[in-house]
Amino acid sequence: MPNTKHAISFFENVNRNFDRAAQFTSYPQGLLEQIKGCNSVYSFQFPVRTSKGLQVLRGWRVEHSYHKLPVKGGIRYSAMVDEDEVKALAALMTYKCAVVDVPFGGAKGAIKFNPKEYTETDVEVITRRYTTELIRKNYIGPGVDVPAPDYGSGSREMAWIADTYSTFYPGKIDALACVTGKPVAEGGVRGRTEATGRGIFYGLQEACDNAEDMKKLGLTRGLSGKRVVVQGLGNVGYHAAKFCQEGGAVIVAFAEYEGAIYDPKGLDVDAVVKHRKETGSILRFPGAKDLGHSLEALELDCDILIPAALEEQITEENSPRVKAKIIGEGANGPTTVGAEEILLKKNVMVVPDMFLNAGGVTVSYFEWLKNLSHVRFGRMDKRFEHSAFDKILHAVEQTTGKSFTETERTAITKGADEIDLVNSGLEETMTGAYNQIREILKSDTRIPDLRTAAFLNAINKIATAYMELGIFP
Predict the structure, then answer these.
(1) b/e 354-377 (16+ beta carbons within 10 angstroms → b)
(2) Domain segments of the chain: what residues?
(3) pTM, whole model, 2 decimals?
């Protein structure tokens, strides 16, 4: 849940950030309004029979921008979701895709229910019924609108969606491309589950690699040794923490809805997850201190704070007490506009969500391409690469008289598997996108922060797309 209720809605918060960036452009107001507004909002209700009896549930699918097709965005399962939230998330997807050069427009969907309160059969029935509504109105399809997992949903639900779509369109050769985030056996791509968390790691690694920026924050270059607090131990938070830990960072605290734990010497990520599975809580983890309230973790002394839960967690109320030097936004919209203004005055670097958590949509794009091509990445060239590298090593051995060990030979000649190619593509995407944003920030002293630079980058790309379509002069 959001930290505090605010007069400014989530969607208004996104649009405020848009407007801050738009002032640095000279585009016609009509074009800016076209980019900012939602192209289509489908709000509906549908009856469904569950173990609780006959119920009527509320659903949404918002298609924010048609400058690129298909549109792309996850489906959120939450009892707390509302239309404003779905519109905000759809808008962020548009800008996110533009920032990382993924050729999709933005979209988002939601069903207003708590899946934990229903049986697996109930969730399947609800998912398939929701998919049917999308099919009826042409709000799903490989070239139209491609959903994905989000809060409360996962690969299981995506498999149900793909199966339902295929049932309505038997023999459609690209049917699996109607949704991403599927299990690998059902057309998914390796690396999708951990993609958002891995993308957060790549983004923070690149940000921390700039000695000039780190010096301004009073930090040394590199991610290694930096103290990290992570809010949220779901899929995104877990993988972000795990990869940061593997990259040399020290995870000093975790926060979840049941509370928070802290150990300045560092927490073992997998051990915490195991403890939570066994006890149902992260609290009382051996060697760690329990905090009275989960939000207290946001105010701990650390170098990097990764809010990877829900929106509006860092607000005007608690931001003055945030001690982190870097905020890595793993969730969508975890920092309000007012809170960010306070953080910037404190010389805190905020690495924005619309860039940092784009790993999921990036790898979803790879999955979509795989489904369209019907070929697993690496299948065509892995053996060829292995053979070519082996010949090169053989030539080197003959020339130098030195023989490589079997371990060395295997490491050098191993062709790229699908997961290797996915991770390589993700790292290239995240590092390239960050440097684009930073260059924009450095190009004009009036641009105040990375978020404004990221929005400006997205606006420029979307505006160019509309103008190239001849819609605007």
Answers:
(1) bbbbbbbbbbbbbbbebbeeeeeb
(2) 1-37+189-381+416-473, 40-186
(3) 0.89
Give the tens place of pLDDT for each residue, 172-199: 999 999 999 999 999 999 999 999 999 9
| Residue 312 identity (one-letter amino acid) | E
Annotated active-site residue 108? The verdict is: yes
Q: List the catalytic residue out of 36, 87, 108, 370.
A: 108
Distance separating alpha carbons of residues 168 and 333, to the nearest angstrom: 36
Looking at residue 335, what is its pLDDT? 92
The number of CA neighbours under 13 Å toward the Cβ of 398 is 6
Cis bond upstream, residue 473 (ω within 30): no
d(CA 332, CA 361): 13
| 8 Å CB contact between 140 and 134 | yes
pLDDT-derived band at 128 (thresholds 50, 70, 90) equals very high
E-strand ranges in 64-170 read 71-77, 105-111, 145-149
Comparing C-alpha atoms, which of 93, 116, 108, 181 is closest to residue 368? 181
With CA atoms as reference, report the closest residue to 23 among 443, 434, 455: 455
- CATH architecture of residue range(s) 1-37+189-381+416-473: 3-Layer(aba) Sandwich (3.40)
Q: In residues, how long is the chain?
A: 473
β-pair partners for 396: none
Name the residue type at position 227.
Answer: R
pLDDT, one tens digit per residue, over 35-91 is 999 999 999 999 999 999 999 999 999 999 999 999 999 999 999 999 999 999 999
For 309-339, letters b (16+ CB in 10 Å) and e give bbbbbbbeebbeebebbbbbbbbbbbbbbbb
DSSP 243: H
Q: Judge whether 1-37+189-381+416-473 and 40-186 match in fold.
A: yes
Q: Name, in order, each residue with C-beta under 8 angstroms of 218's C-beta and a sequence gap of 6 or more.
A: 325
Is the domain spanning 40-186 CATH 3.40.50.150? The answer is: no
